[in-house]
Specification:
This is Methionyl-tRNA formyltransferase. Pfam families: Formyl_trans_C, Formyl_trans_N. By secondary structure, this protein is an alpha+beta fold. It has two domains: about 190 residues, Rossmann fold (3-Layer(aba) Sandwich); about 90 residues, Formyl transferase, C-terminal domain (Methionyl-tRNA Fmet Formyltransferase, Chain A, domain 2). Strands 5-2-1-6-7-8-9 form a seven-stranded mixed β-sheet, sandwiched between helices. It has a four-stranded antiparallel β-sheet with strand order 10-11-16-17. Strand 3 and strand 4 form a beta hairpin.
Amino acid sequence: MTAPRPTVAFFGSPAFALPVLDAVRAAFEVVLVVAQPDKPVGRGLKLTPPPVAAHAAALGLPLAQPRKLRGNVAFEATLRDCGADVAVTCAYGKILPASLLAVPEYGFLNTHTSLLPAYRGAAPIQWALIGGETVTGTTIMQTDPGMDTGPILLQEELPIDPAWTSVELADALGVQAARLIVDALSRLDALTPTPQDDARATHAPMLVKEDGFVRWTDSAPQIVNRARGVAAWPQTTAFLNGARLKLGGLDAVDGAGTPGEVLHVDDAGLTVAARSGAVRVRTVQPEARRVQPAQVWAQGAGVTPGTRLDVWEPDPT
């Protein structure tokens, strides 16, 4: 190694990356932080830095926010001149070109929140829950120009609590990722890269709004798992006569009926039939209105047993 403890350039953008940055900063010298550019946020479209950029600025760390990476000679020079022995990426959000990966002596190490090669892509936490996984984990990998295709350096499992949504799972994985990346950086020369088995790869693309739409023709556990996965965004959406409803507090329960059919309305909430089993819904939020108990919403909307919520299914094309 070029130094007993490597100097680090840290690439990250969202709040998820903050504990990882803090753990790296506590153990090593961070000579550069790289985040995505500021973006308009909220109704006023106020230009706002991503959480990692704001945190780095508050700490007085050197900060760069390049708009593009490919062909960006000036930014490559910035990375080279900062003197980082190794770079760490955590939810940075951009594909890194080969020319940039070659700048630090030890390349780039990525913290990926799945057991690669499973769930390659932008949303591994969400798709693991949607897929009904009971175990996930964190992989520290050597970044290459592909999408999460580089060799594995460290990997550790994490059991998924059945009550966790994407919010709680992200918190737990953030703690795990922070610990593992510090371990990896502490013994760079001792780690043996293990190639991924591409034949076993699965994918976790960025979520779109439709991923939160309830598919009443799924089984009740599948509907609940999807709700867990989209809890942070885009959240769970159902429809009644074309009007959108945000649903909260979903549980799989016993029941049978036509998919989308309301089976019960009581103090426990709204029970709706799935393809197999049923789903109890505790809260409903109609468009442009506040969240309310499902029973209260049902009474006001005239929803009774036998009412059928719209059955939405994805376009097969």
